[in-house]
Design goal:
Elements: H1 8-19, H2 22-26, H3 28-33, H4 40-66, H5 71-113, H6 118-133, H7 137-165, H8 184-210, H9 213-239, H10 251-259, H11 261-290, H12 296-313, H13 318-346
Helix pairs in contact: 1-7, 1-8, 1-9, 4-8, 4-9, 5-6, 5-8, 5-11, 5-12, 5-13, 6-11, 6-12, 7-9, 7-10, 7-11, 8-11, 8-13, 10-11, 11-12
């Protein structure tokens, strides 16, 4: 336990919770960034796991040193006055975009699994996300760290039973498609890059809250390993269902359906919670930057206004948002990671 009451478990769980979300839990992210390459995609996951551990720690370490309250303190310090304004604008915009992805993911989930209008699912997620962020940063950490063990247990169980029912074909690859991701190594780097950029708004303040370097090191290690192992399990599970899942928005839910109705219900519920944890992190990060020095009343209005706007943007569609927004965010995030590594090597 750290001196401020943030344990290794809470650091690791919050790290995992801010990364996993609609794209991760549905299998859409793993499909877009790894499964499409076949066996080399598994090597990409190994690279991504290492980067999650290493870079996640570096970000939280900087947040601890700067006592960061938002992502802006980090990029201002690491990237300098010339680059940081543009990077700040990009990160803030993509926090909003990712929030829209989370709402869209819930809409797709409700439509496919519950036969309810997608707009209803998006509205439910928007309501609970705003409610949590209104409770402040301590509420964000507590809600995320409470949910993560349940999420990981459900992913492990569903993937294990899915592989038993349909063993993975490691030579199978998703049908080729045009886009930004033409190399498995580049895909792995971009995957980590965009996830860390979207998690930056929580990881920086989390480092400041934890306070101790040892807590951050262990938290980053377990958080990165949790992300990597979960991604590998999803990859292997989906490898047994190619090519039929290639055109689906929710491939992991399809696998759960093939196992049993019970798994379908459990995974649908857990997936909604995964989306919630990331949506909370995105909304908190956006508001912490946009309304950093505002009064509580103004912050409340910003939270509500942002939620409504992201809800409107979510009508674009889940898969379309993931395939375009995330790779572009990853490219922008490479600039920040270069600054982060330069600072680490310099020290």
């Amino acid at each position: 336990m750290s001196k401020n009451g943030v344990s290794v478990f809470k650091v690791a769980a919050t790290y995992i919770g801010t990364v996993v979300g609609a794209g991760f839990g549905t299998g859409q992210e793993i499909f877009q960034f790894f499964s499409r390459f076949g066996l080399p995609g598994l090597a990409g996951i190994a690279v991504a796991t290492f980067l999650f551990v290493w870079l996640g720690y570096l970000i939280m370490e900087q947040g601890c040193k700067l006592r960061a309250s938002s992502h802006y303190e980090l990029i201002r310090h690491l990237c300098g006055p010339k680059i940081s304004p543009l990077l700040d604008l990009i990160i803030t915009f993509f926090l909003f975009g990712a929030l829209s992805v989370m709402f869209a993911g819930t809409g797709a989930l409700f439509a496919q699994q519950l036969q309810l209008p997608s707009i209803f699912g998006s509205a439910v997620m928007a309501f609970f996300t705003a409610l949590t962020v209104l409770a402040g940063f301590s509420g964000v950490i507590s809600s995320i760290s409470f949910m993560v063990p349940l999420l990981l247990a459900a992913v492990v169980a569903t993937c294990t039973f899915g592989m038993l029912q349909s063993p993975p074909d490691l030579l199978a690859a998703a049908p080729a498609k045009s886009g930004l991701l033409q190399s498995w190594l580049l895909a792995a780097v971009l995957y980590v890059s965009y996830n860390l950029i979207l998690s930056l708004a929580v990881l920086g303040p989390l480092g400041a809250e934890a306070g101790r370097q040892e807590t951050l090191k262990k938290g980053a290690l377990w958080g990165g390993l949790g992300l990597g192992i979960s991604a590998a399990l999803i990859f292997l599970a989906m490898a047994g269902y190619l090519p039929e899942i290639a055109g689906m928005e929710l491939p992991m839910v399809y696998i759960a359906v093939q196992i049993s109705f019970f798994f379908q219900l459990i995974y649908t519920l857990v997936l909604a919670v995964e989306v919630y944890t990331t949506a909370v992190g995105c909304l908190y990060g956006f508001v912490a930057r946009v309304a950093a020095k505002s009064s509580p009343r103004i912050k409340t209005l910003v939270i509500l206004g942002t939620t409504v706007a992201a809800f409107g943007a979510s009508r674009i569609g889940f898969a379309n948002l993931v395939s375009f927004l995330y790779p572009v965010t990853g490219l922008c995030g490479l600039v920040f990671l270069f600054c982060l590594l330069s600072a680490a090597m310099g020290s």
